[in-house]
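Problem 12. The chain below contains 155 residues. Write out its predicted structure in token notation.
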Amino acid sequence: LLLLALTNIQADLLELKNGTQLSVELTKALTTTDQRRGNRFTATLTKPIRQNKHTLLPKGSKIHGRITDIQSIESGTSKIGLELSSINVDNHLYTLTTHRVLLECNGDLITLTEGAPAFDAHTELGDWIALSGDIHIPTQTSLTFRLAAPLYIKE
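Solution.
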């Protein structure tokens, strides 16, 4: 009887596979000077995720993320690491596990050291460096994250 109940629960869920790309837009700027490890940020999904005629994640869904790494240029290199942690779909909050996006800046050169692909084709990384050498990611910046574990969405 328990096995039958578990099967019925799984039948109502649709799976987004590990590696699925989530394109998001930041709702607020992030900088290495005013953030701390563990701080949260919000974003919105910019492209819907569809599967078998179902829209699993609608465009505009609210996404929460957290800062995994942060370092100001005062130590010689500034860096900021980001990952997504949850998404709200039709008033259901789903936990996300994504690969981290890590940006590092050594003076006037900014590099993506983890999480590729992270940026849309129009992103100019040079615009992200403050005169001080710290990283500033502007509001409405588009980033792409990849799921690190499957996500199960209610049908």
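Discussion. The CA atoms of residues 65 and 122 lie 23 Å apart. Students who got a different answer should revisit the alignment rule from Section 12.3.
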